[in-house]
């Protein structure tokens, strides 16, 4: 018998989730526009304030803590001002950063968004993606092996910045499988073979189309995409996020389960995927079925896209959707 949804949600505070992947810092420059520049046909933004939030894998970890869970984070940052700000923001939000490696030769990925009147005008990316060294892979895998026995679920958050190498991904998935812990993967790129052994991966339509090499022309092509990806994963499931159309869960030897979108107003989709991964991991750790976990993740995504900027969801907000 399925565990009641409210009971699952109430169990979130007792769960620990391991998050591994590409961490980054999101910076927001908030201002007003009252005129166009005489130098070029662009708006002049008068800055009112700046704010910062963990992004990428670190935002996934923050989503875990915002829902009452405990998050253990692993990844690689530089030794620069962006890294210092990221450490500070993570500490504020209660994320445990024992798995973060500081590399003096690496630039911390940072994304600066200029926002005026709730409208993003431009995004400026500061990054220099590079794959891990063998020594860094060894260090992260050793740390992951030590943590996995005491977590309820794991997340592999791949933003194609170099941390989620095939060796790191397979090493983590092997350790999790051995310990009987579910792994949710937020994938990137065209090669999903490195995620083989994952419990569930959650690509969007564009990512799934690229990885399966099947062009989306209608409902039939979406089923073919799912079939191709299920074969690559060899036993894992797929939660296909479909924007305004919601999400569809594909499992081997089971009918697809479609979950309609919950968002009433969409202001900003930044970080929605991180929210989905964090919510699913907590739900599975708390004893939910895959369908229940996908349902809760869909509800969480519907809340977060109604907020401006990199945002999270609280347990109270999620509970309210169940009551409604």
Instruction: State the low-pLDDT regions, or none.
Output: none
CATH topology: UDP-N-acetylmuramoyl-L-alanine:D-glutamate ligase
CA(first)-CA(last) distance = 23 Å
Largest sheet: 9 strands, mixed
CATH homologous group name? Ribokinase
How many structural domains?
Answer: 1
3D structure, described in words:
The protein has one domain: Ribokinase (UDP-N-acetylmuramoyl-L-alanine:D-glutamate ligase, 3-Layer(aba) Sandwich), CATH 3.40.1190.20. Helices cover 36% and strands 27% of the residues. It has helices at 5-10, 57-66, 81-92, 134-147, 166-179, 205-212, 219-233, 272-285, 290-304, 315-323; strands at residues 16-21, 23-36, 43-56, 70-77, 96-102, 110-116, 119-126, 153-157, 183-186, 200-201, 237-241, 247-250, 257-259. Strands 5-4-1-8-9-10-11-12-13 form a 9-stranded mixed sheet, sandwiched between helices. The mean pLDDT is 92. Helix 2 crosses helix 8 and helix 8 (272-285) packs antiparallel against helix 9. With 324 residues, it is of the alpha/beta class. Strand 8, helix 5 (166-179) and strand 9 (183-186) form a beta-alpha-beta unit.
